[in-house]
Structures are given as C-alpha cells and as structure tokens.
Amino acid sequence: MINAFIRKTPPVTDILKEANDLNSEAKTLITKAYDYAEKAHRNQKRMSGEPYFNHVVETAKTLAELKADADTIAAGLLHDVVEDTPITEEELSQEFNSTICKLVAGVTKLGTLKYQGQKRHVESLRKLFIAMASDIRVIMIKLADRLHNVKTLEYVKPEKRKRIALETIEIYAPLANRLGIGRLRGPLEDYSFPFVYPEEYKKVMRLRKTKSKNTLKQLKKVARSIQESIIKEGITDFDIDYRVKHIYSLYNKLKRKNMDIDQIYDLTALRIILPNQTDCYRVLGLIHSLWRPVPGKLKDYISNPKHNNYRSIHTTVFTGDGNISEIQIRDRQMHTEAEYGVASHLFYDETGKPKTGGQAPTGKLSWITELAKWQEVASESEEFINTLKSDFFQNRIFTFTPRGEVIELPTDAIALDFAYAIHSDVGHQAVGATINGKYSSLTTVLQNNDIIQIETKKDTHPTRKWLEQVKTSTARRHIKQYLTKTDPEFQTTN
Ligand code: MN
C-alpha cells in the first residue's frame, strides 16, 4: 500500500514570488494558466495519491526559480494538458497566445519519445532534443517537469522507476549540464542515483557523511579568516557560502579515485562571490598568501571556461593541521550563469540582474543562436558545438514513428523515404501516410518533428515513378532491387 502523503497544492502566489519582477499582465497570464490547468487536471491523481495538478505547479515553480519569462511559466502549468486531458491544442489556442501553445506542443511531442537504453539511442536522442529545441524554452520546461518526476520516483512502479532514473542520468542531466544549468543538473542526478545504483548510493552516502562533518567544521574556520582579509582589502559587497559535493558527482569522482574518499579534495568547498572579475583575482592572491596552494590544483575557468561556459576559479589550499580545502571564486554574473546557464542569457541582463517585467527576451531564442554565442567563447571542448554546426544538422530533419522512434532524414525527404527508412517491406507496400494525424500522400515533403504513420496494403508494389520521387539512397536502392526482380523491362530502360 502506498502511504499517501497528500501535499496541499501550492497557491499561485508561490510561483509568482519565485519569478522575476512580473508586471501585472504577466501575473494575470500565469494566474489564468494556473486556474485553467487546475480545472483540466481536476480529479486526476499522481501515483503518490496527491492531485495531478501539484505536478504542474511544481514544474512551474522550478521555471520561476530559473527566472523564466511569463510565457514559459504559463506553459509549464499547461504542459500536460494536451497529453493527459481531453483538451486539444486547438482548444488551448483559443485561450492562450501562440508562444505558449508552441511551447506546450513542443513538450507534448518530446513526451512521446521512448528511451531504449542503448548508447546509439542516447546520442540520437540528444541530437533530437537539440533539433526539437527550435525554442530552447521547451527543453527548460521538460527539465523542470523531469525534476519533479524524479523527486516523486518512490511512488512509481519499480521497473518503470529504474528506467526513468537511468534516462534522467544519461540524457536529462547531461543536457542540463550542457545548457549550464547547475541548479537542475545536480538534483536531477541525485534524485535518480539511488534508483539506478542503490548499493553504490548507500556506500557513497556513508562515506560523504563521515567525512564531510569534519571538513565542514574546518571550512568554517577558513571562511572566517578569509572574510576578515577580504574586508581588510576594502571589498565589502561579497558572499561566502559552502557547498557539499552532489552525491552523484561525488560517486563519479570516487570511481576515478579507487573509491578513496581521502583523495577527494572538493567534498566540501568554500564559495566566494564577488562584485567583479578583478576582485576574483585579488582574492585569489589573498588566499594564496594566507595558505599554500596544493600544486597542480589551481584551475582558472575564468580565462579558460568549460565547454558549457562555466566560469570560476578553483584553488585547493593547505589550511593547516593536515587539512585541505577547495575554494571557488567567482563574480556575481559568473555565479548566476553557473546556476542558471542558458536561462541566464535569456532572462538576465549583462549585470547578472534579472530582466524586469517578466517579458520574453528579445531577439531569436533558438538554440542555434545561443550556441553561436557560446562558440565565440574559447572552449576546451568544441566537439559538441561542432556536432551542431556540421552539415548533418543543417541538412537533416528528425521525424518519428507514432511510437516515438527517431528517423533521421535529409531535409527534402518525402513520406515514402520515411517508409523505406523503417523497413523495405513497409516501403514496398506503402499506399499513404498519416502525418501529424492528417492523411497525406506518399510524396509529401516531411518537416522536422513530423510524426508519421505509413499505411500499407499487401497487393501494392513499387513503380518506376517512385524512383524519380524519393530522395534517399536507401529508398532508391530498395526500389531498384525490387524492379530489377519483377519488371523485365526495367533493366533495359535503366
Ligand atoms: Mn509532466
């Protein structure tokens, strides 16, 4: 029996107070979406026994914490309406603006994808996410959605639970990482970890607990001396806090260090957040004059940002009594970027302050535009961006079977190419296609994200005309093979 723990649904004000300064129009919009979703999901329950509506409210709250714009928060509230209630996209569009509807449609489509747990599949799914992210906000909603789903994994059936947890660790968390959203990546991994590797989880938890108690005590002493020195230096506007390493990230590091916790120097770390970059280097000098740095441990990700644009200085110092501490130094904008990643580019101004008004950011929001910006930054791993820039991306589209399998095709491919991409028999016997629910001819040119079902009939077969119509070599090859076998005149004319 599930021990139902019914949480009260957070009121809309919980969402509003997390968000950017919203103008009254934005607040009205979010409130309308809140009420609409409440009505749509009324009487639906989660596996935990709590109202389904709670799930979409939590999703929206996460988006508000990321300081997403009002349309995105509203779409977060509405993200399951089309998939899980009788409401159609059309009905939704009568109530909400086209941006919101597009975001909801994007999330709904992503929901139909199935994860098969194969490496190849992981890569194509990743590419797929990217291709689908004609608007990156779709991915943000999906990540926020997934965060609440993994937070409530204990209520899900064991076999399904493991699949979701693994998928989160292999796809969603890396995606959050690539988008630079540290705020989501850590929790996505940590909530999933115990369901994928339960034994390892217990072991790492034990190790972390015993060790971090001491190191935290030590860090507090270190923090006090640093604080005094920084103030003496004339800097007053700064923050110091501690962070304990996320459990899954610790597990990965331990694996590289033979599970020896004593070799982990950043189990706990001190984080110093300063007004600007110059101060970061000043404070670094200060720290190194107080404590001797551990050789080879200084990492300047300010002058050499990570591939996800993470910037910070990490140094590890001997703090006396045989203790070693990691110290991270960054300015406010770097901190915002490390927490919110791509969201910070969309929703924050240059000073790292949230944009006011809760308006959608101006300019193109496309994923590609964002990446083009990142590309200007010197990066240590260009592999990811290169993948995106390759011809592959410019000339390929992603289409799906109704079951969510991914079929990659060239941009001018027609439905018949899709049929052959599934199987030669499907191609040979194809008579028509249902594209996004609409009956269409086999010569219809496909668009990115189309969902296609091929209609077949036993007594049909390929014709020579098909050969002129298809665009992929796979289809052409199969048709030729078929005609060679069955059409005596074919070889002479070809
Ligand atoms: Mn959902």
Sheet-strand content, in percent, reads 5-15%
Total count of helical runs of at least 4 residues:
24
Mean pLDDT score:
83
Main β-sheet description:
5 strands, mixed
Q: Structural class of the helix and strand makeup? A: alpha+beta
Name the overall outline.
elongated
Roughly what percent helix? Answer: 55-70%
- N/C terminus separation: 69 Å
Total beta strands: 10
Rg result: 26 Å
What topology, given as strand order, has the largest sheet?
1-2-5-4-3
Ligand set: manganese (II) ion
Low-pLDDT runs: 356-393
Please give a handful of descriptors for the protein shown.
494 residues; three-stranded antiparallel sheet; alpha+beta
Can you give a write-up of this model?
Helices cover 55% and strands 11% of the residues. It has helices at 12-18, 24-41, 52-65, 70-78, 81-84, 89-95, 98-111, 119-132, 136-151, 158-178, 182-196, 198-232, 247-256, 277-290, 332-340, 342-347, 367-376, 383-389, 391-395, 415-422, 424-428, 464-469, 473-486, 490-493; strands spanning 239-244, 268-274, 299-300, 313-320, 323-331, 396-400, 406-410, 430-435, 438-440, 452-456. The chain is elongated. Manganese (II) ion binds at residues 55, 79-80, 145.
